[in-house]
Design goal:
With 244 residues, the chain is an alpha/beta fold. Helices cover 36% and strands 20% of the residues. The strands form two sheets. A six-stranded parallel β-sheet has the order 7-6-5-9-8-10, sandwiched between helices. A four-stranded mixed β-sheet has the order 1-4-2-3. Helix 1 packs parallel to helix 2 and helix 5 runs parallel beside helix 9. The chain is globular and about 55 Å long. The termini are far apart. The model has no long low-confidence stretch (mean pLDDT 92).
């Protein structure tokens, strides 16, 4: 992680949040006490900032300064409002193509997906505020700079985002092995959002219950699954093929 994208210390983080700095995530020391830490927690809740409680060893690895039990990562991008993005796309007469990432935790996978999304004309990527890979130096590098070209929306809950997409006339399709429907049987020519799951567990079962369709990639080898960024690429290029 690039240290230029970090803020060390509780007071510095509080001031950064209150001044409007776009914070991607705050790491705070587990079991940390004190009035200043309580103030930080209050401010993070007020501004809806994503944070994780971690062992002090992780904080020490993230930065070698006097971190006082808290390190924040600054986002290199500004996030978009999902409702505004959908409205603008529909007003422009576009056929939206979204990617919803349900718990992608690896920054390199995230960056690779963003890169492919940019190449395939994706209109927006939707990620949850909690439990998602940070937008950090690794993400920027792996995306080859594409992170600056594709709108990224942070939402409180993936399920709520799916309901919002559906109510806007955008079909949701989850990539999952838990279906008999093949990827190539899905109509990608209509407004659509492709839902990709986490590296280890796939799409959350509660999310699978609310999507419009489920689809899987045909697999011929002995390994049962692909890397999530590769699978996402296969889905996106099928959408490209159909839309050409």
């Amino acid at each position: 992680m690039e240290k230029a994208q970090q803020i060390f210390g509780i007071r510095a983080i509080i001031e950064a949040i209150q001044s409007g700095t776009i914070i991607d995530k705050v790491f705070i020391q587990k079991d940390s006490q004190g009035e200043l830490m309580r103030e930080l927690l209050k401010v993070m809740k007020q501004y809806n900032i994503n944070f994780s409680q971690v062992p002090v060893e992780k904080l020490n690895r993230l930065g070698d300064r006097n971190h006082q039990g808290a390190i924040a990562t600054i986002s290199p991008i500004a996030f978009h409002d999902l409702d505004e993005l959908i409205t603008s796309l529909l007003d422009e007469g576009k056929t939206p193509l979204f990617v919803v990432l349900d718990g992608i935790s690896d920054a390199r996978n995230f960056g690779a997906i963003i890169r492919t999304a940019e190449c395939t004309g994706v209109n927006g990527i939707i990620i949850p505020k909690q439990g998602s890979a940070p937008v950090n130096g690794d993400t920027v590098k792996t995306s080859a700079g594409a992170v600056f070209n594709v709108p990224i929306c942070k939402v409180d809950h993936v399920k709520d985002a799916i309901f919002h997409l559906q109510s806007s006339g955008i079909k949701t399709v989850a990539a999952t092995e838990k279906t008999n429907t093949n990827l190539y049987g899905i109509d990608f020519k209509e407004p659509i959002a492709i839902v990709m799951g986490s590296e280890d567990k796939g799409v959350n079962p509660s999310v699978l219950k609310v999507v419009d369709e489920k689809a899987k990639l045909p697999m011929f080898g002995t390994i049962s699954s692909l890397n999530v960024s590769v699978a996402c690429g296969a889905f996106l290029y099928e959408a490209v093929r159909q839309r050409l």
